């Protein structure tokens, strides 16, 4: 297969690990693993710098957007697919209650406090800045194609896609 040569401008923007003929034969498993590991570490490091873990951010976000609060089980169930966290969220919920970022009422419903809202807002700003950096020089079209190709690859091996939200 013949690939078009990159222009000098394209070469200056991004140095790739291999030329196109070599890159097309690289294992997708390695590159998805490397991307996951690197991007997860980056995002988690940025959140840690403001005093919250990624799973705690998910919990605060879930509770904030629940009009009537949420039970522990509802939060855990809703976050089950997020990087295999599942029931492992229980200690994070406990810590958020301990830090008074969430309160639990007598019916077991969690609600976010003003301090929790403030941290959630800071974490949201951090997440938006992280996304902007990660997506720098990646067009929406390229991103969309990447996700669609990955989803086709998942389907090709019997993987399940989440239902549309």
What does this entry show, briefly?
The chain has 165 residues and is mainly alpha-helical. The chain contains eight helices and three strands. A hairpin with a 4-residue loop joins strand 2 and strand 3.
Description:
The protein is mostly helical and 165 residues long. Strand 2 (102-104) and strand 3 (109-112) form a beta hairpin. The protein has helices spanning 8-13, 20-23, 28-48, 54-64, 72-78, 90-98, 114-134, 140-156, and strands at residues 70-71, 102-104, 109-112. Helix 3 (28-48) packs across helix 7 (114-134) and helix 4 (54-64) packs across helix 7 (114-134).
List the defining traits of the structure above.
165 residues, mainly alpha, 3-stranded antiparallel sheet, 8 helices, 58% helix, elongated
